[in-house]
TrEMBL record, chains A, B:
PROSITE patterns linked: IDH_IMDH
Family classification: Belongs to the isocitrate and isopropylmalate dehydrogenases family.
The name this protein goes by in its record: Isopropylmalate dehydrogenase-like domain-containing protein
Species of the source: Hevea brasiliensis (Para rubber tree)
Pfam families: Iso_dh
InterPro entries, A to Z: IsoCit/isopropylmalate_DH_CS, Isocitrate_DH_NAD, IsoPropMal-DH-like_dom
NCBIfam families assigned to the protein according to its UniProt record, in alphabetical order: mito_nad_idh (TIGR00175)
Amino acid sequence: FLLLYNSDNSHSLSWRRYRPEIAESVKQVFKAAEVPIEWEEHYVGTEIDPRTQSFLTWESLESVRRNKVGLKGPMATPIGKGHRSLNLTLRKELNLYANVRPCNSLPGYKTRYDDVNLITIRENTEGEYSGLEHQVLLKVSKIITRQASLRVAEYAFHYAKTHGRERVSAIHKANIMQKTDGLFLKCCREVAEKYPEITYEEVVIDNCCMMLVKNPALFDVLVMPNLYGDIISDLCAGLIGGLGLTPSCNIGEGGIALAEAVHGSAPDIAGKNLANPTALLLSAVTMLRHLELNDKADMIQDAILNTIAEGRYRTADLGGSSSTTDFTRAICDHL
Amino acid sequence: FLLLYNSDNSHSLSWRRYRPEIAESVKQVFKAAEVPIEWEEHYVGTEIDPRTQSFLTWESLESVRRNKVGLKGPMATPIGKGHRSLNLTLRKELNLYANVRPCNSLPGYKTRYDDVNLITIRENTEGEYSGLEHQVLLKVSKIITRQASLRVAEYAFHYAKTHGRERVSAIHKANIMQKTDGLFLKCCREVAEKYPEITYEEVVIDNCCMMLVKNPALFDVLVMPNLYGDIISDLCAGLIGGLGLTPSCNIGEGGIALAEAVHGSAPDIAGKNLANPTALLLSAVTMLRHLELNDKADMIQDAILNTIAEGRYRTADLGGSSSTTDFTRAICDHL
Ligand SMILES: CC(C)[C@H](C(=O)O)[C@@H](O)C(=O)O
Ligand SMILES: CC(C)[C@H](C(=O)O)[C@@H](O)C(=O)O
């Protein structure tokens, strides 16, 4: 089962309904790999759904709740019109408490770094994002709760343990924000005690950013409050080439996993068969792992990485001139 | 006139009074370059001064107020004892509203980046740092005011104009924090209108971090609220090799300039004649520019950069084996 949301980035109320080429690419690759799932497709609505107070339809949310798994194409919220952000609505309605982003150097795609192999795990529901309504923060208070901090810390340590990772670094600014970040650290420490086999450390966010650009190999699993996660996960994506290459998956209460491409919907090239489907494909792979379809996940991931490494077919953002379709076909050939 | 604070990083109340070798290095280089200033030296106290509620003495603060210029060695506040942070006290008492950090690749010292030439200008008094008392944030509210935002924006544009810079980027997260960061942007826009010759742009912080690690040459002058400045200035320092190599200067009301080395006091190597004085020396250079002693500033800066570029004398942190004294002597020879 799988779900796709698509929208364009149009800053008007008339959202065109179209199926971007990168979603099509995932469907083709899944078909070629004979992944045993059926797609259930949903689109962002053209009008605000009163039951969600956003352009997200109630049906689409129900679909994720029912299937417990989904894949979300790039979605952008029209700016400055007072609607609730689609991404934030999803996080809130589905209680997507952890955003997980594996970040690995791609063999064959050179950046300044060739030693990146880390995971950022972002608390996804509170902090500076608390109390958002219609994207306006009425009172800018940062809220950190024990419950949400324990939950994401638990997720991070469990992830580390089950994925053969050795270290969890909690990122914070508790020297300034003792009440909030201090509580976050306290929760991480509590959970750390239950995982003696995992090394635990605490790193101040400014220092963390400096160390990440100097030597990303110093890090393994990073766990942090919402805003730091927003910042650091994008920084890490930059190390390996950008958001077009990094998978993302949101974990919700009750075992929900909503994978997503976090890059923008690139309205300038959307619909022109030029976009790079890598981030959505790699996100789809994380979804397959969540479904414990690990053979299919490995197979597809290898095909993607090999296609990029080989370098014959690359989209424009990676310095090539292939169309989305050509690149997709090359991946299918590598399966 | 110049002022030095020195302390060690001892986490006890008994602060040893000693003069670290990097301060000595600045004094030697200034003497060799015949800089026409006299030093007025102050140390962090061994007891809390009731007039400052911190280990900073009232006399030392008065000295900066009187001289309007100062150089501060690395200072650390003992953690978790409920004293007010020395750095935060200084910012508050002297109203140091802008922290300015030029960040340039050092010729001859290779990092992954060779094209860094940017300045971060950080609002230094409010945001998440508002209402700090004894390093405990009683209520974690982010406060952004029109007055402080206009003041730092004005500083940034004026800096850009008088330093031949072409672009100012305001860094923000106004899509989430409309009330606070939105106000910050509004102020930047107002000031930007007075500087039509400077290009103005707004960049969301997460995206900014990604772009910085992908291509720092995209940026010129960056201006931002307190916490983002804390994060991004360290990230930028990482691009060129770390805090040991980056100058910093704090600008206060009434024309005060307090230059500083922002790296730690490195208690493991302090007093062993091993520390790299580059950050403090380059900070001292920014102080000279503030005093409009530009010839001396250029002369000293060239000597530092040439010594590093030549590579014969380098301290351990840069992969060499020179002592602080040898490195300093080499700089003096290059004058
Ligand atoms: C669009 C924005 C609200 C969002 C966030 O800040 O969380 C985005 O940056 C992200 O990381 O998904
Ligand atoms: C030590 C800490 C309070 C300080 C800050 O957060 O401002 C430091 O990181 C800095 O950048 O000067």
